């Protein structure tokens, strides 16, 4: 880990392409450092696991799904926890990347209330998932299910989760060695994909059918 003297949106995009990402020790710590884990978390886009309980939750369709309609609110939701690596500098950088079309969010709504979401950065056919949150049961799992489906439909090849938690592992997330990740990253960066290519959100039955075909 190396201290970053000055960080710009352009430098942040270069960092992602080099396989590193920024973090801070806490929301109140102004310092930001680079991270390049020995074991990298990824979700194989053909291996996302939808359990019976998640499939039931999807079919019940309790939530409304949108994309890129409340980016700042999603980042705020991700940072709204006792310990977070999202400080003001990181918040401002991702908002700038969203404004330039390089960072995206997927939102989960209960009526007019934002109850979950995920955000990340897209470069080439690589999507770098940064964080997700939920305030309702299954909201973050549903967000991730819709995100993975969307990435598949838009031509993405790599979904980077940085680290693996038990939550991500239950959905098909795995750890791969740094060298393996960097090879996958180089290939994904060389291929085209467009997060905004598809605007329509599929219904739950279409999503589940496609998941069965790809997993």
Descriptive account of the structure:
The chain has 215 residues and is of the alpha+beta class. It has one domain: Aminopeptidase, CATH 3.40.630.70. The chain is 38% helix and 24% strand. The protein contains eight helices and nine strands. It has helices spanning 9-18, 52-60, 71-79, 88-99, 139-153, 166-169, 178-189, 204-214; strands spanning 21-23, 33-35, 39-42, 64-67, 103-110, 113-123, 126-134, 158-162, 174-177. A seven-stranded mixed β-sheet has the order 4-5-6-7-8-3-9, sandwiched between helices. It has a two-stranded antiparallel ribbon with strand order 1-2. The radius of gyration is 16 Å and the shape is globular. The mean pLDDT is 93.
Largest sheet: 7 strands, mixed
Helix and strand succession?
HEEEHEHHEEEHEHEHH
Count the DSSP helices: 8
User: Helical amount among residues, as a percent range?
Assistant: 25-40%
Low-pLDDT residue spans = none
Q: Could you please say which CATH topology applies here? A: Aminopeptidase
Overall average residue pLDDT? 93
Overall CATH architecture: 3-Layer(aba) Sandwich
Q: Write the CATH homologous superfamily.
A: Leucyl/phenylalanyl-tRNA-protein transferase, C-terminal domain
Task: Describe the protein's topology.
Blueprint lengths: L8 H10 L2 E3 L9 E3 L3 E4 L9 H9 L3 E4 L3 H9 L8 H12 L3 E8 L2 E11 L2 E9 L4 H15 L4 E5 L3 H4 L4 E4 H12 L14 H11 L1
Parallel strand pairs: 7-8
Antiparallel strand pairs: 1-2, 3-8, 3-9, 4-5, 5-6, 6-7
Considering the chains and any ligands shown, give keywords for the structure:
9 strands, seven-stranded mixed β-sheet, Aminopeptidase, alpha+beta, two-stranded antiparallel ribbon, 215 residues, single chain
């Amino acid at each position: 880990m190396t201290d970053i003297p000055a960080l710009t949106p352009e430098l942040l995009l270069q960092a992602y392409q080099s396989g590193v990402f920024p973090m801070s020790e806490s929301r109140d710590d102004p310092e930001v450092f680079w991270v390049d884990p020995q074991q990298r978390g990824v979700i194989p886009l053909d291996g996302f696991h939808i359990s019976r309980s998640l499939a039931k939750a999807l079919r019940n369709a309790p939530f409304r799904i949108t994309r890129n309609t409340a980016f700042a609110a999603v980042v705020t939701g991700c940072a709204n926890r006792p310990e977070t690596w999202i400080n003001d500098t990181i918040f401002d950088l991702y908002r700038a990347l969203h404004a330039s079309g390089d960072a995206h969010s997927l939102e989960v709504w209960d009526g007019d209330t934002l109850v979950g979401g995920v955000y990340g950065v897209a470069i080439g056919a690589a999507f770098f998932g940064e964080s997700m949150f939920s305030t309702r049961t299954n909201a973050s799992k549903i967000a991730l299910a819709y995100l993975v489906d969307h990435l598949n439909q838009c031509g993405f090849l790599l979904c980077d989760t940085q680290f693996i938690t038990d939550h991500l592992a239950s959905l098909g997330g795995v750890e791969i060695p740094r060298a393996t990740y960097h090879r996958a990253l180089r290939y994904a960066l060389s291929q085209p994909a467009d997060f905004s290519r598809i605007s329509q959100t599929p219904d739950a039955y279409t999503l589940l059918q496609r998941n069965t075909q790809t997993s």
